[in-house]
Prior knowledge:
heterodimer, A: about 250 residues, alpha/beta, Rossmann fold, six-stranded mixed beta sheet, four-stranded antiparallel beta sheet, 10 strands, about 30% helix, B: about 375 residues, alpha+beta, six-stranded mixed barrel, about 50% helix, binds adenosine-5'-triphosphate
Amino acid sequence: MTHPAAASQPATPPALQAIGISKAFLSGKLHTQVLEDFSLRIEAGELTLISGPSGCGKSTLLAILSGLQKVDGGRVLALGSELGQLDLRALERFRLQHTGFVFQGFNLFPALSAFEQVELPLNHMGLSRDEARARARRSLEEVGMAPRMKLRPSELSGGEKQRVAIARALAKEPELLFADEPTSALDAANGQMIIDILHRIAHTHGTTVLCVSHDPRVVVHADRVLAMEDGRILSDRRTHVPTNDSKVT
Amino acid sequence: MVALARKTLIYEWRRFLPAMLAVGFAGLLQLLQLALVLGIFGSTSVYITGSSADVWVGYPGTQNVGSGRTIDPDVESRILMDPAVQRVEPYDWVDGDWRGPHETGGISVFVSGIDPSPEGLMFSKALSPSLRARLAEPDAVIVDRSVLGQLGVNIGETATINGHQVTVVGISSGLRALGGVNVLTSLATARQLDGDPSDNGPTYLVAKLHDPEQADAVAARLRGDTAFGPYTTWSARDFARLSVRYWMFDTGAGAGVLFLAGIVFLVGAVITSQTLIAAVNGSMREYATLNALGVGVAALRRVVLEQAFWVGALGLLGAGLLGVLLMLLAHSQDVPVVLNVPAALACIILVMGLAAVSGLAAMRSLRRADPATLLR
Ligand SMILES: Nc1ncnc2c1ncn2[C@@H]1O[C@H](COP(=O)(O)OP(=O)(O)OP(=O)(O)O)[C@@H](O)[C@H]1O
Ligand SMILES: [Mg+2]
């Protein structure tokens, strides 16, 4: 069932591409080289999983590919734009138009209802009020939270909160969705539901989903699994045939 | 548009309460301080504001009503010659030493000798016609309700001023003085009380005009004639201002007010900004998430500033309500408090300025809302 990634290079341009990037942190006298001459392609419309031991640089890689962190060297291409050439405002605009995020913490505003959490970022995208509300409702329906959309975070379970957080990212209709340990704060059943939703988003919306996780259940659902260690990709395998790419056999 | 700032303020009101209280108390302190100062120093010009004279004539260089010197009595005819003038009357100011019937020791009093006739100008707004008429009796005086205890007298009792016996025939209200006690009497009695033989003219001449609007013009016109010895003229408004300004600035009280205002602003701003910063910090991860989703830092700043605005507005509302109650209480206790539009405006500006400064300080802490910190 698994194929080496190199053997099935698709002709379509990648959604995300890192070319020879390096990243180091300097905290006090301690110099940590997290990534060095690191290259990677992430294909569009797939659920790609990055897994690996703690501290190997997964979150750092995600932050770089999503434009939240600058690289020390190398180039990052996201949807064809070179992120290194965008200033802070342009990066914000790029993220507003093209990316969604799901974090380990749900980071919902305590004062807002589930519906308002989802509507809030849409207000800033220049959508009309009606369009924003319609989108918010649709994406809450998609994650099965429509019946509870009037509730505040304090009235929701952890899994429900994470579904609201996903709906918040999804309502923007982004081409790129980044998730960092989205299931690690949840129990098995809720974690499974989140994975199902992420998988469905990749396949029904054609969204490129890049997910960092230790969770073995995610591995089963991912189209592609990257095992990372010490800032390098150790293995790169496809768990099953991507439904939207007929060239891969 | 989801009203994040307002909804957070309402839902987490406990978090914002200290800021609202700080703003409210700063506003209240400022309001009461100003009202007291205006009330107390306003009373230094009660001789002018409580009378219906439009133009005052006195010794050149006089800085407040209490420090006048006598002028030539013939100036009166000069003033009357002006066609705009309807009526002129003398006003005598005599510094006296009061000895009450009971053990009170010597009290320094300001004797105002006024024309007791019904059309008299001096204190026409502070005395009822019947009360004023009682001054026509020889050696009759009127004292203020607020100083009865201090003077140790009551109506009908006698006392001495500068060794001359007087009888209290009436009690006025709202005629407090600063640094002494006002005693009202007739011009004739005042002259008898004046121990200084060199005083052979009125301290002031006050004039009523046919058209009060012309006070400034007439005052300017009457000035500068030296044929009758030194004198000068002021419109009533200018003289009142001069008097208040003298007390405010030459006594250092104004500097005290400004100093306290500065302290109040500083303390209020520190508490308010700290509370707002804590509130921002409490939502830092959520703000960072919005920023990750592409909501600009400028938009997040607006949320914080809006919260600061509401904190200021609500604090102001509380301060206003409490301030009105306290002012009413002060009035009922004869405490001189006065609030005018510029003073109220100054309080509003101070409070909203305080909220704005605090909001800006809190906005700075938003810089730590770095979405990269959410990925760990
Ligand atoms: N802001 C920072 N300052 C200093 N060092 C950092 C910073 N961010 C990350 N690092 C270091 O970079 C390395 C990689 O961190 P990263 O968060 O990418 O790991 P990770 O693979 O996501 O680990 P985990 O699975 O535990 O989340 C770690 O050694 C960490 O100490
Ligand atoms: Mg991590």
